[in-house]
């Protein structure tokens, strides 16, 4: 497995623990966290835990199912950074109610999703190597 895909999975599991912590804090001491912690929790769990796990597993398996290499390792590496930076900015934006930070984080996180979609579509929609000859 490519180290980047492992990083997606490691990040996913870290976000699961962090997101669970946010949920526990909200249950035990509501109002302790500033801003909109429920929205921060939701983004940590969905974009952090769920999406990062999907990214890591899909980048490894889907090209193999299509019998092709991943279209672009560089795009996947960019996606790893963009997904994490975007999520952190979203969480900070929700906790501080800073609309500019929210917008920036959301835009970066969305761009990571778009890069993922493009990279996977280019990887799986190409004809397998043994079919290209004729």
Distance between the termini: 32 Å
Share of helical residues: over 70%
Portion in beta strands: under 5%
Rg on CA atoms, Å: 17 Å
N-to-C series of helices and strands: HHHH
How would you sum up the global shape?
elongated
Counting structural domains, the number is 1
> What's the helix count?
4
Which sheet architecture does the biggest sheet show? none
Identify low-pLDDT runs: none
Please, what is the average pLDDT?
93
SS-derived structural category:
mainly alpha
The total of beta strands comes to 0
Question: Keywords for this structure?
Answer:
single chain, 134 residues, mainly alpha, 4 helices, elongated, transmembrane, Cyt_c_oxase-like_su1_sf, Cytochrome C and Quinol oxidase polypeptide I
Report on this model:
This protein has 134 residues and is an all-alpha fold. It has one domain. 78% of the residues lie in helices and 0% in strands. It starts with a helix and ends in a 10-residue tail after the last helix. The model has no long low-confidence stretch (mean pLDDT 93). Keywords: Membrane, Transmembrane, Transmembrane helix. This is Cytochrome C and Quinol oxidase polypeptide I. It comes from Thiohalorhabdus methylotrophus.
At a glance:
The chain is mainly α.
Topology:
Layout: H1 3-28, H2 37-65, H3 73-96, H4 99-124
Protein name: Cytochrome C and Quinol oxidase polypeptide I
Organism: Thiohalorhabdus methylotrophus
Keywords: Membrane, Transmembrane, Transmembrane helix
């Amino acid at each position: 497995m490519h180290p980047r895909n492992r990083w997606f999975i490691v990040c996913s599991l870290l976000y699961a623990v962090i997101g669970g912590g946010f949920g526990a804090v909200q249950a035990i001491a509501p109002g302790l966290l500033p801003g909109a912690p429920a929205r921060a929790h939701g983004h940590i769990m969905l974009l952090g835990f769920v999406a990062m796990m999907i990214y890591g597993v899909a980048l490894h398996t889907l090209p193999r199912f299509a019998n092709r290499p991943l279209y672009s390792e560089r795009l996947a590496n960019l996606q790893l950074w963009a997904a994490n930076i975007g999520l952190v900015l979203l969480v900070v934006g929700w906790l501080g109610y800073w609309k500019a930070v929210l917008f920036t984080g959301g835009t970066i996180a969305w761009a990571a999703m778009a890069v993922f979609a493009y990279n996977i579509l280019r990887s799986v929609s190409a004809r397998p190597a043994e079919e290209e000859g004729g």
